[in-house]
Write a structure and sequence with these properties.
globular, 26% helix, 38 strands, 34% strand, 7-stranded mixed beta sheet, 6-stranded antiparallel beta sheet, Rossmann fold, Alpha-Beta Plaits, Elongation Factor Tu (Ef-tu), domain 3, alpha+beta
């Protein structure tokens, strides 16, 4: 395989920006599908789950392979709803480039900002496709400006839409100055550029050349000498700047009508990197020391990352990105996390919910594997003789929870098995069983996330259940620290054992699990791992309400050792007693998830919406006017926003839209605890 002719590409967007429609038309343009699937009709190939087709939204990332002008694309269509941001996160971890789709009317929206931050965090360059340019109110240049204003993206238009009698007819390539018309089902046809567009296109081309001259001495020299630059030179310079994240090409079109999709594919080839142009991977060796990779060399030792897993009825399908080496069917693979060998029974070239078998996959490729038993999302598969552990994706903490119980005792085992499989597949879906009550607590990223999972219980796993009301997924935190000591002297197994540990629980900000720090040499080195493990486990459950503790540091500040009686079990028990005593003296506060909101409303309803937000303890940040629209942003406790979609529709006669994203945790006022039914555990 010629890796210079491979693109690992993701399509990302805010919900309803037309991302899946873009993917569907790509399948049609490249000859993979003979007809264009439609989201609104439930015929989209990439939305293959029954739940996706019923709801008309993308829930799980879907992969496929297409070819355009001799270049292969591994294309991943990702969800746009905030509740399924985890799907975008784990895909972004393995992509080399992306297409950000934005709405020509709304411009950058809340989830557009989220995926932009993910792209920046994972150093994934992108091109932008301004979709729905055929809608009333569409404004390509205004939408492009929102990229600069809201994302601080160095956006440069490389196309401009052509309208005729108010209808979108085609696009102009600002680099070549050529115009194209689009008729659905036919290849783009060259046309004369409308006379009225020449000046606008000339200005955009000049702005592009000026932007390229800032980072290219040859282009700067040509500008200073007033020398005409050919299209090939400009495209090569723009490719370099795109890969360096210093410019973002912006294209336009209307995917539902097939306008602009073929030039978008050309832009992916021209501007987004191949695996050869991406920095080599970095990871850790078997001793935890940093280790650099060899680059995408098929002859190198294997290094692959499992970034997604689908738990199907006939076993798991594990999606992997091969970074180095060659992956072959039946070859044993080393999983450093579990320190066990795995064997892939099949390698698949995935296409939505199907795929074709392969004999091997080489460095740079993305494929699906079946037959893996122990591998989960984030695991590395490598050569045991030359192991490497790659950094796994990071996933946010759940913000909402429900209590679920089987409708009959006969369904108890089926419910347990189904929930375990769903949690195995989705890292953002947490399950905890209460055996004494015969119930399960499930946690997820939002109301829609849990609603979809519950519907899957019935439709896919055929389990009927009873469900409680949604509840906030609270956390506990140490506001003021405390000290505690634990001492164990007793007979254990006929032997007198001893252990003593002194700890201090210190307040520290953050939503991470409590960390352990050592400030003493009084605990024997041999027992330190046991003490640390005991402290971490005991600190997972808060002393006040039983919710997980976040933030804080557990400092081991003292201990005692009697060499003739020291025992591992005694030091572990002493550590538990010490941290319990420290937490009893600490001041514990309750934290609740906080959400950042983005509400788009007509001007006449904005004041009523803002007043309602005030009653929900929201902190309104900005109110931005965009024509007759008002964009209201801020943060609000999640507990105040259950059922808000109904409220905002009522306040705006159904004309406002909103989205929310997790934004950390905030302390719950003490006076509200009793009203929420929260009492001491």
């Amino acid at each position: 395989m010629d890796l210079s002719k491979l693109r690992n590409l993701g399509v990302v967007a805010h919900i309803d920006a037309g991302k899946t429609t873009v993917s569907e038309y790509v399948l049609h343009c490249t000859g993979v599908e003979h007809r264009v699937g439609r989201v609104d009709e439930g015929t989209a190939v990439m939305d293959w789950m029954a739940e996706e087709r019923e709801r008309g939204i993308t829930i799980t990332a879907a992969a496929t392979r297409v070819q355009w002008k001799g270049v292969d694309f591994n294309l991943i269509d990702t969800p746009g709803h905030v509740d399924f941001t985890v799907e975008v996160e784990r895909c972004m971890r393995v992509l080399d480039g992306s297409v950000l789709v934005i709405d020509a009317v709304a411009g950058v929206q809340a989830q557009s900002e989220t995926v932009w931050r993910q792209m920046r965090r994972h150093a994934v360059p992108c091109v932008v496709f301004v979709n729905k340019c055929d809608r009333v109110g569409a404004d390509f240049l205004a939408a492009t400006q929102t990229l600069r204003d809201r994302l601080q993206a160095p956006a440069v238009p490389v196309q401009y839409p052509i309208y005729e009698d108010g209808e979108l007819r085609g696009v102009v390539d600002c680099i070549e100055g050529r115009a194209w018309s689009f008729t659905k089902g036919e290849a783009p046809a060259p046309i004369e550029m409308p006379a009225g567009l020449a000046d606008e296109v000339g200005v955009l081309r000049s702005e592009l050349v000026d932007a390229l001259a800032d980072g290219d001495d040859a282009i700067l020299q040509a500008v200073l000498e007033d020398t005409e630059l050919d299209a090939g030179t400009l495209r090569a310079a723009l490719r370099k700047r795109t890969i360096d994240f210093t410019l973002v090409p912006v294209l336009c079109g209307a995917a539902l009508r097939g306008v602009g999709v073929e030039p978008l594919l050309d832009a992916v080839v021209d501007y987004l990197p191949s695996p050869l142009e991406v920095p080599p991977i970095t990871g850790f060796d078997h001793e935890g020391e940093p280790k650099n990779g060899n680059g995408p060399d098929p002859a190198a030792p294997l290094a692959a990352l499992a970034f997604k897993l689908h738990a199907g009825p006939h076993g798991d399908l594990t999606f992997v990105r091969v970074y180095e080496g060659t992956l072959r069917t039946g070859v044993k693979l080393w999983n450093p996390r579990v320190r066990r060998m795995e064997r892939a029974s099949r390698i698949l070239r995935v296409h939505a919910d199907g795929g074709d078998s392969l004999d091997e996959a080489v460095a740079g490729d993305i494929v699906g594997l079946t037959g893996l038993k122990l591998t989960v999302t984030g695991d590395t598969l490598c050569d045991r003789a030359d192991p490497i552990s790659l950094e796994p994706p990071e996933f946010p903490e759940p913000v909402i929870r429900l209590v679920v119980e089987p409708s009959s005792s006969a369904d108890r085992d089926k419910l347990r098995s189904a929930l375990d499989r769903m949690a195995h597949e989705d890292p953002s879906f947490r399950v905890r069983e209460d055996e004494s009550a015969g119930q399960w607590t499930i946690e997820g990223m939002g109301e829609l996330h849990l609603e979809v999972q519950l519907h899957r219980l019935e439709s896919e796993f055929h389990v009927e259940s009873r469900v409680g009301q949604p509840r906030v997924s609270y956390r506990e935190s140490v506001a003021e620290g405390g000290r505690g000591s634990g001492r164990v002297e007793r007979m254990l197994g006929g032997k007198d054992v001893f252990g003593a540990v002194d700890v201090e629980f210190v307040a520290a900000p953050g939503d991470h699990a409590p960390r352990v720090e050592w400030h003493t040499d009084d605990v024997p080195d041999a027992f330190r791992p046991t003490v640390e493990e005991a402290l971490v486990l005991e600190a997972q459950s808060g002393p006040r309400f039983g919710y997980p503790i976040v933030g804080g540091i557990v400092r081991v500040i003292g201990g005692e050792s009697h060499s003739d009686r020291d025992a591992e079990a005694a030091f572990g028990q002493a550590a538990i007693l010490a941290v319990r005593a420290a937490l009893e003296k600490a001041r514990i506060v309750l934290l609740e998830p906080r959400m950042a909101f983005d509400i788009q409303s007509p001007e006449e309803f904005a004041s009523g919406i803002i007043a309602d937000l005030g009653s929900r303890r929201a902190e309104v940040g900005d109110v931005v006017a965009e024509g007759d629209e008002r964009i209201v942003t801020g943060v609000v406790p999640l507990a105040q926003m259950f059922g808000y979609s109904t409220a905002v529709r009522s306040l705006s006669q159904g004309r406002a839209s909103f989205s929310m994203t997790p934004s950390g945790f905030i302390e719950v006022p003490e006076e509200e605890l009793e009203a929420r039914g929260l009492t001491w555990a």
